[in-house]
Design goal:
heterodimer, A: 366 residues, alpha+beta, 14% strand, B: alpha+beta, four-stranded mixed beta sheet, 12 helices, globular
């Protein structure tokens, strides 16, 4: 096969489907779960799950394309969709033939078992991760406070990442029913995203079966793959958001101001729009390339980190441009303000620029 | 989507690297820069190795390969040296593209095999003292005189004009009127009476001189006209699109060359008891360079890929060119910072990347012109 930068016919069809759903379900109220329900009903679901297991079997480039399309209309929904797909679709399929885990997958594919991440590090860093105590019979007891989790309000399950007490460097991944005894989910004090926004999850002595947990080396391996996919989701959403912000900047630049000529006639504005457009195009290519790399076994997370970092920067810069061009009018709930908030939130979703650069440097042998 | 190189492309890249390792060791590169000599011997060896005219049609002796292949080769050359990529590829890209697009069958049969065999060097004369970014403002005029034209005027910044056998010369054949109906292109014999070439000293790319070319009543047979009379602007536009795709690849290559040098140095140089690359300030600088290089690579690849498919690629070529040029410049500047005092010496090659990359932001249409082109493609017209 020679280099081919076009989406495949299947990927293009998916792109059209997702765009249609996103636009139809757009209510102007960011973060509603309606697009997710519509996606599930129309079978735009389980993209990373092999067809043999009841999924769509589409792959990572498709996931990134879908996240981009959703991110263009509602970045919070895009982010939630991508993370649900990883936690509810990809991981159980990757996990293997464990009946409980297959139950997670089946309910996810039916659309009634959304599964949210509860893995992002707390401000205290790795030491602040949820702790897991292992009983003699193999079950675990989970304890964690204020664990950030996107979309936990509407999720049936949480995918919790924990650190085992007295264990090595491995991580423990566990599915926890969102309404289990000891689990409390509340919207995070700050941050947008409505129904699919960020929540704080408290886990107070939550007991789970060993069959719902993936510990040790295998858990660590799964977590690494999961983090790469997380970054790809953020890269896709950030690309879509950057595109949306660029379009809003262009629209604002082309509109008349107080009887004067539109700013779009000014060379400085034209050049800023040209530069922002170029960054969006580059972000799209870099994100898709990173997805392709992960799909084709390029071993480390270098390209995912590059994609996340570059796409988020493209969104941040597009946000700054849109804010300048819309001025005070943009600083409203119906203007670009929600998108600016989203760009800020994406900056620390699935990593942050500094951790990405640390990862890239490591890949460079530094 | 598919991003993998084919086995043939991998072999080609490996062959180019081996060619450069064998034929362009550091002492050789330093020597051609110091002597300021066009590398004729290398030019012929490059052709003998089968890399010249890579993208030209096989029917005319070319490699019959794609622009993606050319992108891959150009990147490797630029990684090594600015003079090398400019000397070895400019004829094939500029004149080759113009001949393929607008040449008569006789012209193609005569010139293209010579290009592919490395037997001819053709320079591209477009810019004038008062017609740089605004190429439509050229004043060099070709007056019809029987079965010939007589050219008068002065071209500026014509690369390798002093080494060239022919100069692809853009002229006006109508005193007034838009470029689309007033320009004609000629392949002028560089030894023609009345033609004078003066190299202009410059900051880098020393083995390929940029020249002022004075045409004082230079008589050119009408048979050396390339494309229809008064319709040369289309030829020029095609060459400029090709040049920008090529510039995307060469900017990327220069960035990669500077990056690899900086990375190696950061691993070798010990301060405070450890390699400086272990300090986050340096490792993040290198990570940022790597991120920008990836973006430049993808944009340059997109432009080449679209050209191969006959898709419109003018906007993509401008995006590729400007991002690659800025990436090369920023990478070299950061590279200078990482090498510290050693970067400022002539003993290390970072200064060469630093000097050469500046040209990339200017030549072939400045970054500002590329943004004008992109803006026009976005429907943003008319500027204040």
């Amino acid at each position: 096969m020679s280099i081919d930068l076009a989406l495949s016919p299947e990927e293009e069809a998916l792109q059209r489907e997702v765009r249609a759903v996103a636009e139809q379900c757009s209510s102007g109220d960011p973060g509603t779960a309606a697009p997710l329900r519509a996606m599930s009903e129309r079978g735009i679901w389980g993209l990373l799950v092999p067809a043999a297991l009841g999924g769509r079997g589409s792959g990572l480039v498709s996931l990134v394309v879908a996240c981009e399309e959703l991110g263009r209309v509602d970045p919070w929904v895009g982010l939630a969709f991508g993370l649900f797909e990883i936690a509810g679709g990809w991981l159980p399929a990757y996990w293997g033939e464990v009946p409980e885990v297959q139950g997670v997958l089946e309910s996810y594919l039916r659309g009634d078992g959304l599964c949210a991440f509860a893995l992002e590090e707390s401000p205290a860093g790795v030491e602040g991760l949820t702790r897991a105590h292992r009983f003699e019979d193999g079950d675990y007891l989970l304890r964690g406070q204020e664990v950030p989790s996107r979309g936990a309000r509407i999720a049936a399950r949480l995918l919790v990442v924990a650190r085992e007490e007295r264990a090595g460097d491995g991580a423990l991944l566990a599915y926890v029913p969102a309404r289990a005894a000891g689990v409390a989910v509340r919207p995070a004090a700050l941050g947008g995203g409505g129904e699919v926004g960020l929540c704080a999850v408290d886990l107070e002595d939550v007991r789970i079966s060993a069959r719902d947990a993936l510990p040790g080396e295998r858990g660590g391996e799964a977590l690494r793959s999961l983090c790469i996919r997380h970054k790809l989701v953020v890269a896709g959403v950030a690309t879509g958001l950057a595109q949306a912000l660029w379009e809003k900047a262009l629209e604002a630049a082309a509109s008349e101001r107080g009887g004067g000529p539109p700013p779009a006639g000014r060379q400085a504005v034209q050049h800023a729009l040209a530069a922002a457009h170029t960054r969006v195009e580059a972000a799209r290519l870099v994100a898709r390339h990173a997805a392709w790399c992960a799909e084709n076994g390029v071993p480390d997370g270098l390209h995912a980190a590059i994609a996340r970092c570059y796409a988020v920067e493209a969104a941040t810069q597009a946000a700054a441009l849109a804010a300048r061009l819309t001025g005070a009018r943009g600083r409203t709930a119906t203007g670009v303000q929600p998108y600016l908030d989203a760009a800020r939130e994406l900056d620390t979703a699935g990593g942050c620029p500094e951790s990405d650069k640390d990862g890239i440097a490591q890949s460079l042998g530094l | 989507m598919e991003f993998d190189l084919t086995p043939e492309q991998e072999l080609m890249v490996a062959s180019v690297r081996e060619f450069l390792r064998r034929e362009c060791p550091r002492p050789y590169l330093r020597a051609i820069e110091e002597r300021q000599e066009f590398p004729f011997a290398l030019y012929r060896k490059f052709a003998e190795a089968g890399f010249m005219g890579l993208q030209l049609p096989a029917d005319y002796g070319g490699g019959g390969r794609s622009w993606v292949d050319l992108f891959l080769v150009a990147t490797e050359l630029a990684k090594v040296s600015g003079s090398v990529y400019m000397a070895l590829l400019a004829t094939s890209v500029f004149a080759g593209e113009a001949l393929v697009a607008a040449g008569t069958e006789a012209q193609k049969r005569f010139y293209l095999p010579k290009i592919a065999r490395g037997e001819i060097v053709i320079a591209f004369g477009l810019t004038e003292a008062n017609a740089g970014s605004d190429a439509t403002a050229i004043r060099t005029f070709a007056r019809r005189d029987g079965d010939a034209f007589v050219i008068s005027g002065t071209k500026m910044f014509t690369s390798a004009a002093d080494a060239a056998d022919r100069i692809l010369t853009v002229t006006r054949t109508q005193r007034e009127g838009p470029a689309t109906r007033a320009f004609t292109v000629f392949l002028v014999d560089a030894k023609s009476p009345g033609l004078q070439v003066r190299p202009i000293p410059k900051l880098g790319h020393h083995a390929v001189h940029t020249c002022e070319v004075v045409f004082d009543q230079v008589r050119v047979p009408a048979a050396d006209m390339l494309g229809p009379c008064d319709r040369g602007w289309e030829v020029v536009r095609g060459v400029l699109d090709a040049e920008r795709i090529w510039a995307g690849a060469t900017g990327l290559g220069a960035a990669l060359g500077a990056f690899e040098l900086a990375l190696a140095y950061a691993k070798e140089r010990y301060q405070f008891g450890r390699p400086i690359g272990k300090f986050q300030a340096i490792s993040h600088m290198l990570a940022e360079m790597r991120i920008e290089i990836e973006a430049a690579r993808q944009l340059a690849l997109l432009a080449a890929w679209k050209k191969d498919r006959g898709l419109p690629c003018s906007k993509e070529a401008s995006m590729a060119k400007y991002v690659a040029a800025e990436t090369a410049q920023r990478t070299a500047t950061r590279g200078m910072q990482i090498l510290g005092g050693y970067g400022y010496t002539m003993e290390y090659d970072m200064q060469r990347y630093y000097r050469e990359s500046k040209l990339m932001e200017v030549a072939g249409g400045s970054t500002e012109i590329q943004k004008n082109i992109i803006a026009a493609h976005l429907g943003l017209r008319g500027q204040v």
